[in-house]
Amino acid sequence: MYSKKNEIQNTANEEIEGSVQGHRDGHGFVIRDDGEGDIYLPPNEMRAVLHKDRVRVRIVRQDKRGRPEGRVLEIIERPAQPIIGRLLHEAGIWLVAPEDKRYGQDVMIPKVATGNASVGQVVVVQLTEPPALYGQPVGRVVEVLGEVDDPGMEVEIAVRKYGVPHVFSDECLAQTQALPDAVRVADWRQRVDLSDVGFVTIDGEDARDFDDAVYCEPTRIGRAKAWRLLVAIADVSHYVDSGGAIDTDAYDRATSVYFPRRVLPMLPEKLSNGLCSLNPLVPRLAMVCDMVVTSKGAVHAYQFYTAVIESHARLTYTEVAAILANTRGLEAGRHADRVKDLLHLYEVYRALLAERHARGAVDFETTETQIVCDDNGRIDKIVPRVRTEAHRLIEEAMLAANVCAADFIAENKRACLYRVHEGPTPEKLEILRGYLKALAVHAQLPDEPPPSAFQAIAEATKDRPDAAQIHSMLLRSMQQAIYTPINSGHFGLAFEAYTHFTSPIRRYPDLLVHRVIKSILEGKKYQLPPLPMPGEAQHKLARQWAAKGRQEAPPGSGAAPRDQQGWEAAGLHCSANERRADEASRDVEAWLKCQYMREHLGEEYGGIVSAVTSFGIFVTLDTLYVEGLVHITELGAEYFRFDEARQELRGERTGVRYGVGTRLRVQVSRVDLDGRKIDFRLVQDDAGDARALKAPAAKAERGGNGGKRDAGGGKPAKNAEKKQFKDKPPRDKHGRHATRRKH
Predict the structure, then answer these.
(1) Which of 94, 270, 447, 664 is such that its CA lies 20 to 30 A from the CA of 230?
(2) What is the reported pLDDT for 540?
(3) CB-based contacts of 459: which residues, under 8 Å, 6+ apart?
(4) 346 and 393: one domain?
């Protein structure tokens, strides 16, 4: 029988390249360029390497947990990225403790290299000597960020910790300054004048840039009822020249990064908040997707063209939801001239939604949360973000435009970046089957299940008390959506071809899609400029091509062989930077929540178990929407076994269960700001028993359904973005697998 041990023996002499990912406990992993399974590096192998180093390793053995263990043969490349941490003075020695615990080693700082920094301040360090087997790394302070409790410090740390570009180049700013302040007369040429069409923008109250506007009117296809739906998107490509200074900076960022109270935009403010933003009552250049939608929600016909539009109103989701709920109410009275158009939009939305259900797209409902900060940048409160019909209306309109863009590009056989989301892997599918069986959820999942199978499970379990957790496991079983020129469809949305067209102000792939569509309209071919690509992406791409033995572009990609690597590199870069932005945002949110919970030490709250691990349970507080860990040592003086299939801990002596969905009473016991960790302890009653209910898993075995599920945490959906999961999800602040992903 072939075993993992045989596999390790067969690769014993193979030299493997990849990037080091450190762990706060001292060990690390090599993320292989060829995409195969990670290689474990024990602490002794991590002494001479750092997190993010590119290395060449050889597999030497199998560790106790069955993982391939590697030995570092060579450090190929050491990124010049600085290290951020707090300056400490201990026993006469100056050192910096890295804020990112994955580095694993403190950096020694000579006294003459401390600059103007004081003890305890957050500083940026540049390495002058690398680590060695018997010596720590040495560095010098190159920037002082300030005190750890300074307002906004969490963002300053995150952008440097994750390498997020936060300063535009001088060339980019100079090119931006040379742009006009408004649409010029010459810009109207060869564009359709839609300035008299009643476009409106519908966004959140705190939105600053408006990249999409919508309008709808009834029409007919023969005698059948239909609607003409227009989605106008800011024409960023008119102002951002391909390969220019603004374009280079935009590609480097690849996406805007959103933090509470602060945004790092992909484009300079003159473009993102001014010239390209579809602000009300001013002419703006736009790319329009003009669609005819049938009464069953199918797009009967569409066309793309450039236009000049004028938004007739800047509406919020709250206002539109109020108007749709009461067309004679106060909000409807304030926007009386827009009510008729909004009702038409609502009608086409209902048709598109019906078509979504008919094709079986995944559509899990979650309650999102929003961090509200005070004037000093600290959390004032965390509130649920209500997702209304207005949110879904815009979402369905954007989905329709994105699908038309993908179809238009594919029909014209042009290369571009698709938004691809593949179905679950066989391994994840088997884990999901075991989980559902343990919870007595009767579901038939074939080897290649359609999206409708997942949606059916979600519908069947929506009234269970553990519904949120079941839906989370359904999402976790899916892969992460990526950008790639090779179209293989979008599993979650049940589309054969899908791309991102609707947000070129904040996403670089959308800007590329606009350029390709324009080139088709003009009868030309868009040539991707020679954009810079990080070394890690270059190595990964080269390895992927070599592993697949590819010498030419795959069929259906629409690219010539010499162009294919450029498009694949752009896809890798944009996908990686999207993940980087998400990680930085989560890090800032975790910092703020820890800072917030330091003011609530010792207080008691009700909560629900949101995750279970072998070392404890994670509890999300009902009123604060903050998650913390109850360590297994806090659960009582008995031995607890972890049941992975049921996602629960069970006491051997008493049989008490702590499973996903269990309600508990906990006390905030400890907050670790540096580690982004919050610890809880169970609150006990007078008899010494923890105040806990039996896990919903036990109820499910008895056939009980329970009441409505509790609200879970999450991230706002915008422009059809949903949460999905990749093959190997990164670990969160507590070392467990993170669960927030998106399409």
Answers:
(1) 270
(2) 57
(3) none
(4) yes
Q: With respect to residue 531, please indicate whether it lies within any of the assigned structural domains.
A: yes
Question: Are the CB atoms for 310 and 234 separated by under 8 Å?
Answer: no
List, in order, residues 6 or more apart from 140 with CB less than 8 Å away.
109, 110, 113, 115, 125, 126, 128
Q: How many folded domains does the chain comprise?
A: 4
Assigned token pair, 2: 């072939």
Beta carbons of 356 and 297 less than 8 angstroms apart: yes
Tokens of 731: 């670990």
Closest CA relative to residue 457, chosen from 426, 427, 478, 436 = 436
Q: Distance between CA atoms of 194 and 286, rounded to whole angstroms?
A: 10
Same domain, 444 and 397: no
Q: How far is CA 385 from CA 260, 317, 480, 506, in A?
A: 14, 11, 24, 22
Instruction: Report yes or no: 154 and 591 within 8 Å, Cβ to Cβ.
Output: yes
Q: Which long-range contacts (CB under 8 A, 24 or more apart) does 468-473 make?
A: 468/366, 468/661, 468/709, 468/710, 468/711, 468/712, 469/610, 469/647, 469/660, 469/661, 469/696, 469/712, 470/436, 470/439, 470/441, 471/364, 471/366, 472/712, 472/739, 473/432, 473/435, 473/436, 473/647
Structure token pair of residue 193: 């004048």
Shared-domain flag, residues 484 and 447: yes
The answer, yes or no, to whether residue 735 has pLDDT greater than 50, is no
DSSP 488-547: --BTTTTBSS----S-TTTBHHHHHHHHHHHHHHTT-----------HHHHHHHHHHHHH
Q: What is the pTM of this model?
A: 0.85
Give residue 42's domain range. Answer: 4-77
pLDDT tens track for 127-174: 999 898 888 999 999 999 999 988 889 999 999 999 999 999 999 999
Question: How wide is the angle at C-alpha 492 spanned by C-alphas 201 and 355, nearest 5°?
Answer: 65
Sign of CA dihedral 244, 245, 251, 257: negative
Separation between Cα atoms, residue 336 and residue 343, nearest integer Å: 12
What is the per-residue pLDDT across 390-408, written as a single tens digit (0 to 9) for each? 999 999 999 999 999 999 9
